[in-house]
């Protein structure tokens, strides 16, 4: 028997076993799981080989985005998540759909949501971050699990205690004054408030949480924004078990190469910030690492108690998480609040009256802000 015949004899069983494993993962298991869900009274759109419901979701999102918004309303789920709105109506408050061969259980019934949120039995675990999401958040608070999550959450909480937040107010006020002056300089011309608030929140976070210049913060924000775009673009891409991993080792798509470059650039900037803070302490320019978010992370790197110590990778991942989560949420919240105030002018007048009553022409401070009822609610 020649070498080629021997190779074929050995290869055929391996290929057959590989094919069976592939079909088991992408066909047999999903069908069995769907039957089990149905038996428990949990219905949903039927599983479709290999891609699940990913293509349906993409079609629904594309169709929803193509329709103009006829009115301004808080009910935007049908536009942003049309598949969830459609399937909730069709299958009830709790249902299952498929991303590739993996089932996604959607729970909207309040009592069940409470059970999952409390997670008293520790049976509900976060999905393991992969691909672009892993590059975006690393193994930070959003994606970490178990003891590591508990340790990082306890550490991060110190940055948001009352005294810490109060100390940030002067920097926030200073950034606000700069933004308002910029608005006055527009001379009554139209202002893109979303972009303005994006700039404002980036500056506030850079100053208060990292003690860095806006330029350094901008490098991180811009890199994360591009990474987020890539992650969103590929959110519905299905990884074919076994095949995707093999292909990625042989050929990397342009977006994946770009994501790796961005990830490294962001890491380099954050490491530079950490190094600068450490040097300032070493040279005597600072008495300690500082009480801001970056300072707490740097201090934790050198904890005597090994169980509380964190690595430089932890520092980078938590910084990325804070930059991204703090920036996006505040930016969108401020823009939406401004839109609502422009629509509901009575509330606008009420809020303005309250601010003028408490502060007049004085600069707002933490204690005064706490007394505002209309604005805070």
From TrEMBL:
Any GO molecular function: oxidoreductase activity, acting on paired donors, with incorporation or reduction of molecular oxygen
Annotated InterPro entries: Cyt_P450 (IPR001128), Cyt_P450_E_grp-I (IPR002401), Cyt_P450_sf (IPR036396), Cytochrome_P450_Monooxygen (IPR050665)
Locations listed in the record: Membrane
Keyword set, alphabetical order: Heme, Iron, Membrane, Metal-binding, Monooxygenase, Oxidoreductase, Transmembrane, Transmembrane helix
GO cellular component: membrane
Membrane topology (UniProt): Single-pass membrane protein
Top-level taxon in the UniProt lineage: Eukaryota
Family classification: Belongs to the cytochrome P450 family.
UniProt name for this protein: Cytochrome P450
Species, as recorded: Linum tenue
């Amino acid at each position: 028997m020649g070498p080629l015949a021997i190779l074929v004899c050995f290869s055929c069983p391996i290929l057959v076993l590989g094919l069976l494993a592939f079909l088991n993962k992408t066909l047999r298991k999903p069908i069995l799981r769907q039957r089990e869900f149905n038996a428990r009274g949990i219905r949903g759109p039927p599983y479709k080989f290999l891609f699940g419901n990913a293509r349906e979701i993409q079609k629904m999102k594309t169709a929803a985005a193509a329709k103009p918004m006829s009115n301004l309303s808080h009910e935007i789920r049908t536009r942003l998540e049309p598949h969830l709105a459609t399937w909730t109506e069709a299958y009830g408050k709790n249902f299952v759909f498929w991303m590739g061969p993996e089932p996604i259980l959607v729970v909207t019934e309040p009592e069940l949501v409470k059970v999952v949120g409390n997670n008293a039995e520790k049976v509900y675990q976060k999905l393991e971050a992969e691909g672009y999401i892993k590059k975006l958040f690393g193994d930070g608070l959003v994606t970490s699990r178990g003891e590591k999550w508990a340790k990082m959450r306890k550490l991060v909480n110190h940055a948001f205690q009352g005294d810490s937040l109060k100390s940030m107010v002067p920097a926030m006020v200073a950034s606000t004054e700069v933004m308002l002056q910029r608005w006055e300089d527009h001379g009554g011309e139209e202002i893109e408030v979303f972009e303005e608030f994006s700039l404002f929140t980036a500056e506030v976070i850079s100053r208060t949480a990292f003690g860095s210049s806006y330029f350094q913060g901008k490098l991180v924000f811009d890199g994360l924004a591009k990474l987020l775009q890539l992650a969103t673009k590929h959110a519905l891409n299905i990884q074919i078990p076994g095949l995707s991993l093999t292909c990625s080792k042989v050929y990397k798509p342009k977006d994946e190469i770009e994501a790796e470059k961005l990830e490294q650039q962001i890491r380099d900037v954050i490491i530079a910030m950490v190094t600068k803070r450490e040097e300032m302490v070493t040279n005597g320019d600072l008495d300690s690492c500082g009480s801001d978010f970056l300072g707490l992370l740097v201090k934790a790197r050198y904890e005597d108690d090994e169980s509380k110590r964190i690595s430089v990778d932890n520092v980078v991942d938590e910084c990325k998480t804070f930059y991204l989560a703090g920036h996006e949420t505040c930016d969108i919240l401020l823009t939406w609040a401004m839109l609502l105030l422009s629509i509901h002018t009575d509330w606008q007048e009420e809020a303005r009256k309250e601010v003028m009553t408490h502060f007049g022409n004085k600069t707002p401070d933490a204690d005064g802000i706490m007394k505002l009822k209309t604005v805070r609610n």
